[in-house]
Design a protein that fits this description.
Length: 215
Amino acid sequence: MPSNVYVSPHPLDQHKLTLLRRIQTEPKKFREVIGELATMLVYEATQDLRLDPATIATPLTTMQGAYVGEKIGLVPILRAGLGMVEGAWQLLPQAEVWHLGLYRDEKTLKPVSYYNKLPVAPTVDVVLVLDPMLATGGSATAAVQVLKEWGVARIKFVGLVAAPEGIAMLHSHFPDVPVHVAAIDERLTGPGDEFPTGYIWPGLGDAGDRQFGTG
């Protein structure tokens, strides 16, 4: 596994991921837990943000403190990535949010772009791509390509669960993009499985459908 793939070992992350995996977890609870888990994963993904020193006054004296010196953008991949935005905002309330609409063609498993409202020039220094599932890697790769062409130098992928195939796909195109997830599962489903091809196994099902009560 590449050195810039980070799997959270935190007990609370694993607890919350187990709640998401359970088939009994209803959409309301599913949305709540996705937000909570996103907060913790974003915390881990932002440990290397640049700090700029600042002189501040405390109630007792003055001292040298520091503020984050980079502008951060959140790019949820529609629609499933929307559930991670509120959790990320808990830590990064000033972050800009830009949406990319990508869906996976269920026959070809290729990403199809249908929405992109990025401005002409980048307005942020660091972008966190938010998507619960890194399955085939097609949507994540397409999103990073769009952001690279937009002019963003630092991009990170933050998800909940990844398949080895998705990590391999993303890093075959963009080895410089770190991946932060709560788990790397066994594989993707294939033609010999009773489930649709291209789902993460054992996974947690379709994260979009489970959030929004569809499917």
